[in-house]
Amino acid sequence: MTGIWWTSASIEIFLCSLTAATAHLLMSLGQTLFHRYLGHRGIGGRFFENHLHIHHRHYSGDHVVSENYLNEEANNTPFFLIPVTLVISLGYLVLPLDLLIVQLTTMSISFYVHLYFDKHYHVAGSWLGRFAWFRRKQQLHFLHHRYADCNFAVVDNFWDWLLGSYRGIDADRETRIKVSLPRI
Ligand SMILES: [Zn+2]
Ligand SMILES: [Zn+2]
Questions:
Q1: Cα-to-centroid distance, 52 and ligand 2 (Å)
Q2: Is the pTM of this model over 0.85?
Q3: Which DSSP symbol is given to 63?
Q4: What residues make up the domain containing 175?
Q5: Structure confidence at residue 175 (pLDDT)
Q6: Is 184 a domain residue?
Q7: For residue 160, which of 36, 23, 51, 64 has the smallest C-alpha distance?
Q8: Are 151 and 165 spatial neighbours (Cβ–Cβ below 8 Å)?
Q9: Tally of domains within the chain
Q10: Which of 180, 153, 179 minimizes the C-alpha distance to 165?
């Protein structure tokens, strides 16, 4: 009896983990593709204008950080809600309630983390700057602001590597030194 319970609990944990991992990866892939194909191409319309003409204008060249985040008026969040709603609707059709809740929770957290990281890459003295992994991601994002044809992913940088748009920090050491933040 105990053996059966453990088996069903293990399967449930596995399915929850699989659903959460898939939901987050869908979010980070979606962000990377939206950024690359809509944020940097005229076909993106308003999304393109918000991103390139406001976000990239605020932060360009060596000016990549500010005291306060300067992007509030360029809100592209509603555009991301369209595919997110689509994925959640599909989940509603095929997933049992517990996995649907896992999917909804993970996508909400992932969405927020993307917004939060994007913001804190550009805020001088962010508390996240104490972590080496964050500073590395920040440098990769700064390279995106410098060249605009690389490092489109905000959270999962491996998507750029898989899509052929990854530009490493070490390959661009000169840039890294120029845009590096003072240590906190
Ligand atoms: Zn940025
Ligand atoms: Zn961009």
A1: 6
A2: no
A3: B
A4: 2-179
A5: 54
A6: no
A7: 36
A8: yes
A9: 1
A10: 153
